[in-house]
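User: Can you predict the 3D structure for this chain?
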Amino acid sequence: MLAERTRHFTVATEDVFQMHNTSAVMRTCDVFGIQDLNVVEEQLGKRVDSEIAMGAQKWVDFNRFSSVKTCMADLKDKGYRIIATTPHKDATYLDDFDVTQKAAFFFGKERDGLSDYVLDNADGFLKIPMYGFTESLNISVSAAIILQSSVTRLKTTNIDWRLSEEEKFGIEMNWLQKTIKSSSDIITRFRLQNQ
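Assistant: Here is the predicted structure, written as structure tokens:
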């Protein structure tokens, strides 16, 4: 699984109201090998619904931010382009999106979409082609469509999208601690034996 993980893309949600939507996005990140989910909880505090996440909270790194400005600054410092997903701007269609550059896909509130701050400071805009009367999709559906397309296309390129050996080791240790019962006791015993 680690060999298929990537930090070339990441996902950020901004003040998503329904807890199950954030949990479903986390599950989608896991399915498509996205290692990090960034959640802005500026207006609404949240927790992940483990029943909907279906265990994905063990495998996806969950980064919480109290403001969208802080989240965007952190992601830009890590080399990500901020990509606002919105059907309302002069946006790039999904099939035309340049997958060779690192990108953080931002998804907004269920009813209102992304804040003006994200829209005003994004590096690009992305939309899913739609042909019906409904103007938007559920956030988890949008995330699934965008990640499936982007990750599939990324893996056909020559871009080095995989995690480094150091990243893989750190993630594997994190996964083991989350899945092995009494892992903290095992670590304590190991440290005591090797002092």
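Residues 39 and 64 are 5 Å apart (CA to CA). Residues 164-195 form one domain.
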